[in-house]
Amino acid sequence: MKQLNVGILGLGTVGGGTYAVLTRNAAEITRRTGCAIHVVQVADKNIAHAQALTNGQTDVTGDAFALVNNPEVDVVVELIGGYTLSLELVLKAIENGKHVVTANKALLAVHGNEIFAAAQAKGVMVAYEAAVAGGIPIIKALREGLAANRIEWVAGIINGTTNFILSEMREKGLAFADVLGEAQRLGYAEADPTFDVEGIDAAHKLTIMSAIAFGMPMKFAQAYTEGITKLQQTDIKYAEELGYRVKLLGISKRTTAGVELRVHPTLISEKRLVANVNGAMNAVVVKGDAVGPTLYYGAGAGAEPTASAVVADLIDVARLADATEAQRVPYLGFQAGQLIDLAILPIAEINSAYYLRLRVNDKPGVLAGVTKILADRNISIDAMLQKEPDDNETEADIVILTHITIEKNMDAGIAEIEALPAIVAKVVKIRMEELGK
Q1: Could you tell me which residues come within 8 angstroms of residue 295 by beta carbon, excluding any fewer than 6 positions away?
Q2: What's CA 197's distance to the chain center, in Å?
Q3: 294 lies in the same domain as 415
């Protein structure tokens, strides 16, 4: 029987889960592939930990470059993360003619164009299902399952940490800082949560999905990123009163003017399935011209959910290692040389509906002045919530939901509104999406 020899770089949470799944399900995997997938070497800085995890059944080294240079290794599984060392190791593995499987979304979002070009030149595979949404097979869905479609847009909850925080803020009425501390205690958030809460992790994943959806190079540097650190409990509560939930969404749309590539807090109708994805779960909605909207839901992180995707990639490599280039699925789902360098729209040029919260002096004529400014800019109002001031207070909140307009028009209107004497604070603006058309 044919054997595929695997080397694993990094035996942390996902690496350990990958080793466990490969070992536990070895017979089932062989039945599916007709090939034994065997881990011949692992590399980890903590040699003692790696030896204990592999129970002495696999060669362990502390030298990652020894593994990528090992002639017995057919496939290098990169699970160490980061941009620098991981890039060196992946490029060296490709140079050595080895296939690569990676869960490293940051590496691909920033350096994917270079990596795929190198792999193309050497005729090796680079598989990366685990890089986006953990155990949800969204890469395979975009590259293969929806290949008949012209993808119109992709949107998703693709960061479990922020989804947990927003779910807890809504359900328990807590402030962001309080829920962040709880997320860190439970292990959902890192000690330094910046990549998660500022939307950078979601932007990495959205960059990869957009490249596959629209057949364009990775363009992470042009993605608009806005996190959840400034979200207030007040706005989550008002949104719910109006029938909406607030989620951190990654959104990419193909328009006649270019591609929208943006991550930010978003109001979604509570009637949408994706609005009801809570806790640390992920969900991605993809709209194809033929199939319409499709939803993919599941665990976006964790040892074995992510390992499930890593091992699925290894199975694909086992099945296709001896295939010709024409028989393999292209790295981004489009043939080499067929990617189009689509323009990414600045955030000021996107079209959206908006949630606005105005803190005002409670006196006659305030609302009339605000609505006139919006009307003068052809911004239509969809709904409004006017709150009475608390006892002994002279200030109140007005919440407005608008119809779709171009962002620069909305921003200009907000600037005019903020100049009104009755407005006592900066206007809160949150974008809104339908995700059903």
Answers
A1: 273, 274, 283, 284, 285
A2: 12
A3: no
Q: Annotated catalytic, 205?
A: yes
Residue 437 pLDDT > 70, yes or no? no
Residue 196 lies in a domain: yes
Is 116 buried (19+), middle (13-18) or exposed (0-12) by CB count in 10 A?
buried
pLDDT, the chain, mean = 95
Q: Are residues 148 and 260 in the same domain?
A: yes
Determine the Cα–Cα distance for residues 251 and 407; give it in Å rounded to an integer: 15
Domain limits for position 257: 138-299
Catalytic residue among 205, 219, 247, 287: 205
Q: What is the pLDDT of residues 72-107, one digit of tens each?
A: 999 999 999 999 999 999 999 999 999 999 999 999
Whether residues 167 and 291 share a domain: the answer is: yes
Ramachandran category for residue 34: left, alpha or beta (phi over 0 → left; psi -120 to 50 → alpha): left
Q: Is 264 helix (H, G, I), strand (E, B) or coil?
A: strand
CB 149 within 8 A of CB 289: yes
Ramachandran sector of residue 151 (left: φ over 0; alpha: ψ -120 to 50; beta: rest): beta
On the question of pLDDT at 349 being above 90, the answer is yes
Find how far residue 68's CA is from the centre of its chain. Answer: 29
Q: Where are the beta strands (DSSP E) in 103-214?
A: 126-127, 151-157
Do 32 and 13 share a structural domain?
A: yes
Considering the domain architecture, whether residues 375 and 317 belong to the same structural domain is answered as no
Provide the pLDDT confidence category of residue 436 given band limits of 50, 70 and 90.
Answer: confident
pLDDT of residue 394: 87
